[in-house]
Design goal:
8-stranded mixed beta sheet, two-stranded antiparallel ribbon, 10 strands, 17% strand, binds S-adenosylmethionine, binds iron/sulfur cluster
Amino acid sequence: MPQDSIYYCHPVFRPPSEANSLLIQLTEGCTYRCTFCISNLRRKFKIRALEDIKKDFEIARKIYGPNVKRIFFLDGNGMVTPFQDLLEVLNYANKSFPYLERCGIYAHSKDILKKTDIQLEELSKLGLKILYVGFETGSNELLNDINKQVTKEDHIKASKKLFNVNITLSATFINGLSGSNNQEISKNHAIESADLVNKICPDDSRLWYIAFLSLMIPPGTKIYEKKSVGNFKEMTPNEILEELKTFIQHINFKNKNANCVFRSNHASNYLPIKGTLEKDKEKILNTIDYGLTYKESLRPDYYRRL
Ligand SMILES: C[S@@+](CC[C@H](N)C(=O)[O-])C[C@H]1O[C@@H](n2cnc3c(N)ncnc32)[C@H](O)[C@@H]1O
Ligand code: SF4
């Protein structure tokens, strides 16, 4: 019997900004094992057969017609897919959807570093226009602690590679990684993360994105195990906002025309914050102070989710 629906490996997770994009399952699972991430709940990593992906494009074309403008390729680190396969998938996407404007993928910094500049440039020309990279922190100590298998210096190199070939960077950090009552580590997380963002800031006015999520502890993750045996205690909303405040205070771009969209308005966050760095620095700091003063303005824990 012919397949009549697009294949998805559940649960599906995608960036909030890809809510209206066609989702295509390129890989399943992730080749990394970060301690906080639900990708680890998928037992096996795989790159799907190109023939199966092409079938999904055909089904999508029948369902949505030729006018699809955006595609997001699932899953956790789809960018690990070998260059030739990515090329073929993007070519097929363009053939199926002639008005395609942008494709996006989740990428670990190491996946970006493994591609040459020429390869990235080719992918960019074929419509790979945005990569969602989990920085999590600029602190090498915490990167090690969460088993990110990457350093701050790798994040800097990977970001510069993207900027050089006009692929938009959308990077996420996580507040709360140090756990409660670890003031020094938390402060270092904030300062090193700000330093990382200051160092990658391009010297033109292109758009790029930085977001902070707040740590969630999903069952089945390593950090959940750590919490269950009393080796990790979640930060309080107050500690999280103080950490974010220190990050914002340390943002200092040489390029005063930078166009860095800052968001901390994910469902995991206690307080919705949005602005442009560093133009809106004072406004963002005032919003954080408001949250620190008026606890009733914070999202209750039972409403927080990934
Ligand atoms: C599905 S991951 C993909 C990113 C990419 N694989 C990488 O690591 O560079 C998306 C992002 O969601 C955030 N995230 C995942 N699990 C989280 C959790 N338990 N709490 C808060 N944020 C989380 C992290 O910032 C993570 O990088
Ligand atoms: S955060 Fe990214 S790299 Fe780490 S396990 Fe999750 S999907 Fe993989």
